[in-house]
Amino acid sequence: MSPPAVFLAWGDPSAVAEGNLNGKSATRWIYSSLQPVYTPPPSFWAGPYWGGPYWGPGFYRPYYPYYNDVTYVPVNTGYVLFINGKVQSWERRR
After folding, report:
1. How many Cβ atoms are within 10 Å of 81's Cβ, its own excluded?
2. Global confidence as pTM
3. Can you give the C-alpha Rg of the chain in angstroms?
4. Would you say which domain of life the source belongs to (predicted)?
5. Distance separating alpha carbons of residues 48 and 57, to the nearest angstrom
6. In this structure, what DSSP letter does residue 1 have?
7. Within 13 A of 24's CA, how many CA atoms are on the CB side?
8. Would you kindly state where each structural domain of the chain is located, as residue ranges?
9. pLDDT at position 42, please?
10. What secondary structure does DSSP assign to 36-87, as a single string?
11. What is the DSSP letter of 30?
12. Integer CA distances (angstroms), 66 to 10, 61, 88, in order
């Protein structure tokens, strides 16, 4: 399979790495996507002096809705290895 065929099937790669493998020209296309990761509120929002009878101890409720508790981190999800312009191997994470 040629690089244009892989481009049609998988789209534009996130990164491209080039080098040599056993004396042959090698190119690796790397595909990435964003994965959500939960992040708790900073520790300074909790403590014995925050909160109260209306919100519960250790949690200052009025500011919590403004805190984004999900962070998106890039994760490599696929690779295609081309040797001399043809696919040698591929890998895709599910």
Report:
1. 16
2. 0.67
3. 23
4. Bacteria
5. 7
6. -
7. 13
8. 3-92
9. 59
10. EEE-PPPGGG-STTSEETTTEET--GGGGGGS--EEEEEEEEEEEEEETTEE
11. E
12. 37, 10, 48
pLDDT of residue 70: 83
Give yes or no for a contact between 30 and 20, defined as CB atoms under 8 angstroms apart.
no
- Cα angle at 89 between 30 and 2, to 5 degrees? 80
Q: What are phi and psi of 56, to 5 degrees?
A: 100, 155
Given pLDDT bands bounded at 50, 70 and 90, which one contains residue 94?
confident
User: What does each C-alpha distance from 51 to 55, 63, 65, 66, 74 come to in angstroms?
Assistant: 5, 11, 14, 16, 35
State the Cα–Cα distance between residues 29 and 10, nearest whole angstrom.
10
Sign of torsion over alpha carbons 13, 17, 18, 23: negative
Tell me how far apart the alpha carbons of residues 42 and 37 are, in angstroms, rounded to a whole number. 15
